[in-house]
Fold this sequence. Notes:
alpha/beta, four-stranded antiparallel β-sheet, disordered C terminus
Amino acid sequence: MVGDDPGTPCRPDLEVQGLCCKFKKRTVLGDVSLSASGGDVIGVLGENGAGKTTLMRCLAGLLKERGGRICIGGERMKPRQRTEQHYMIMQDVGHQLFAESVWDECLLSDDEAPEEAVENVLKEASLLEFRDSHPMALSGGQKQRLAIATGVLSDKKVLIFDEPTSGLDYFNMLRVSDIIKRLAGEGRIVFVVTHDMEFLEATCSRGIIMDKGAIVKQSLLATPHGPCGPPAVPRDACAAPFPGRNEPAQAGPVRE
Ligand SMILES: Nc1ncnc2c1ncn2[C@@H]1O[C@H](COP(=O)(O)OP(=O)(O)OP(=O)(O)O)[C@@H](O)[C@H]1O
Ligand SMILES: [Mg+2]
């Protein structure tokens, strides 16, 4: 877990080493390594098809790795064990809303959640007025916010958001950014796949860029949050800065 002494460097809670993943014989993730600690919000960038969702599904235990290892707290985790520690909010949230009402959907994450906690989460997501609505009757952005609310209630150590702001207006993008930073402040590890540079800058403490199934660049960002405190390297000083809003991610050296 995270060290209490500010002079002690944080030991990573999550370690991924040499991860490989294939669909049939085709390698879609090759030799991916990364580490993360409670409080990290890691932005995952890359062009369509780069392997972002595949990496996240593998982390969450929804896909079995063909090589490499994923450890939590120093212990190697099999896919089924990973599903117990991770909660993934999918790119297409329509596939993960099952209940008959917004309120019941929240209880699917934690059927023992106190009423007050569910109310607070729905308020935070601006969905309280829809508590009795059917999830499928919500707009796309409202469905996304509901899926995020279920993640907040899930109480898992690692939360994965796959393009959580793709259908959100500016105000709700900021709202989701705040929710994610609060989750990190609770000591969770958060991964956020995104193409939205504004959201990335507002939300993430670190970022990785993927290309062709590999991590080609890692950077610290200047968002000052998380129990490890502000990033040691200000954004201007990063050896490998992120591309601008409309620039594609370029392959480059991996920064250790
Ligand atoms: N179920 C699957 N079966 C076979 N190939 C797959 C499957 N899912 C993904 N792939 C392939 O793996 C590669 C990586 O896909 P992935 O969905 O991880 O990309 P991504 O970076 O999330 O892209 P996007 O930005 O479009 O969401 C792609 O070439 C894709 O065709
Ligand atoms: Mg994807």
